[in-house]
UniProtKB/TrEMBL annotation:
Organism: Pseudogracilibacillus auburnensis
Protein name: DNA-binding transcriptional LysR family regulator
One Gene Ontology molecular-function label: DNA-binding transcription factor activity
Residue ranges annotated for the HTH lysR-type domain, each copy included: 1-57
CDD domains reported for this sequence: PBP2_CysL_like
PANTHER family: HTH-TYPE TRANSCRIPTIONAL REGULATOR (PTHR30126), HTH-TYPE TRANSCRIPTIONAL REGULATOR CYSL (PTHR30126:SF39)
Record keyword Transcription regulation present: yes
Family: Belongs to the LysR transcriptional regulatory family.
Record keywords, A-Z: DNA-binding, Transcription, Transcription regulation
A Pfam family hit: HTH_1
């Protein structure tokens, strides 16, 4: 049954019998037979095909969602049993929001791989909203996010506090030693992240709290692109201290002494509440909490 479910899930996610067969290293007839066998066991059709288009019906949607949970539990069971007599090992699917994934996680994973080479990390980067949803959908085992993702099935564990600063191009004349009042940032172009980003939520809260009305708002899909746009003089932005260390040293951006900054926010570990956790998961969580970079 678990093999049939795995094939069905791949077909649904690939939206194609042919692509699913390629990913699973199976023939297309074998994939079709697996789906047929699953439908016979369930007692109803799960997939409708019209004009070569694949459509998952209501029964198929139910089997897909619950099937994902079954596969995840089965993999967890195998890992837990294997670990009874062994060191932490196996695959660990880690999701991280952009700032954490780009600036903190690489060093943590480097130490993880050095100390526990039998753990194989699989990294997925997205914004906070995307990482939270992937955890709920069992696409990752653990998430590291900026700010909050509220869901009663999750545990949140704070591992460090971030500081955010407003930056401008190193070539601009907006810099001075004295403090800048937030209202002086009115009528400026602000560069902000996309919807679902933890950084976006903090930026919007800062603008509302200080009654700042930007002349223009430009939206970007990553902090890296925002930094490059700031360097080019396109506008100003509120970004994490972790993201601008190199640029501040090079002088390509400047940190503005704006009153009510730095803005603080939490970096948290999120995971689904469950009775058992693999050694690999516990090891990774402990390493994130105790990592020296996370406390500086």
């Amino acid at each position: 049954m678990d093999q049939y479910l795995a094939v069905f899930i791949e077909v649904v996610e690939s939206k194609s019998f042919t692509r699913a067969a390629q990913k699973l290293h199976m023939t297309q007839p074998a994939v079709s037979q697996s789906i047929k066998s699953l439908e016979q066991k369930i007692g109803t059709k799960l997939i409708e095909r019209n004009n070569k288009q694949l459509h998952v019906n209501k029964a198929g949607e139910i089997v897909y969602v619950i099937g994902k949970e079954i596969i995840a539990k089965y993999e967890q069971m195998e890992a837990l049993v294997s670990e009874l007599e062994n060191e932490p090992s196996g695959n660990l699917k880690i999701g991280a929001s952009y700032t954490i994934g780009e600036y903190l996680l690489p060093k943590i994973v480097k130490n993880l791989s050095k100390q526990f080479p039998q753990i194989t990390p699989h990294i997925l980067i997205g914004n906070t909203e995307e990482i939270g949803k992937k955890l709920l959908n069992h696409e990752i085992d653990v998430g590291l996010i900026e700010g909050n993702f509220k869901d009663e099935t999750m545990n949140h564990l704070l591992f460090t506090t971030d500081e955010m600063y407003i930056i401008a191009s190193g070539r601009k004349n907006l810099h001075r030693k004295g403090p800048i009042a937030p209202e002086e940032l009115n009528d400026m172009t602000w560069l902000i992240r996309e919807e679902g980003s933890g950084t976006r939520k903090i930026t919007e809260h800062f603008l509302r709290k200080n009654n700042i009305n930007p002349k223009q708002i430009l939206i970007f899909g990553s902090t890296q692109i925002i930094k490059e746009a700031v360097e080019a003089g396109l506008g100003i932005s509120l970004v994490s201290k972790w993201a601008i260390k190199k640029e501040l040293k090079l002088g390509t951006v400047k940190q503005l002494p704006v009153m009510q900054t730095p803005v603080q926010r939490d970096f948290s570990i999120i995971k689904i509440r469950q009775e058992f956790e693999t050694k690999a998961m516990k090891t990774f969580v402990d390493m994130v909490i105790n990592h020296p970079y996370a406390n500086k």
